[in-house]
Amino acid sequence: MDDMKYFAIEGHANTDFEAIHLCAQKLKEEGYVTDQFESNCINREKEYPTGLPTVVPVAMPHSEASGVVKNAICMLKLDKPVCFRRMDDETEEISAKMVFNLALTDSSHMEILQHLMGLFADTDKMQDLYDTDVVNLPEKLAAYIKQGQESE
Length: 152
Prior knowledge:
By secondary structure, the chain is of the alpha/beta class. The chain has five helices and five strands, in the order E-H-H-E-E-E-E-H-H-H. It has a single domain (5-150), classed as Mannitol-specific EII, Chain A, CATH 3.40.930.10. It has helices at 16-29, 36-47, 109-120, 123-131, 137-150; strands spanning 5-11, 51-52, 58-59, 72-85, 93-103. It has a five-stranded mixed β-sheet. Helix 3 (109-120) crosses helix 5 (137-150). The protein is globular, with a radius of gyration of 14 Å. The relative contact order is 0.21.
């Protein structure tokens, strides 16, 4: 996705919804989403949890395309893990260290999700992302996703 923009922030959240708020706020400041985006993501997270029990636990909140102005991903590196309900079993929780808030138009949705799932399964790359300084994260995340697209 050449038209994809990547953002990375660090922060503290006490709940999954606070974590989503931090990402949505950044995406809105940058002009990639509207006011509606944050509540769309939170409402969707209530219905369809996005916590993934990968080696480095992550969550991938997103919403339908309404509220999205342009394609972007905001990665939040948390100072301490936050509980998200699991995607595959919503009675269980994972402690997410990183949150990838996806702002996607419909056309790119499935493709990006597939590349991210591949990335989340790669322990070395995920640990590398977590250990990378937030200033260099957007570039590194973009490179990893691009690698995933090229290996198809």
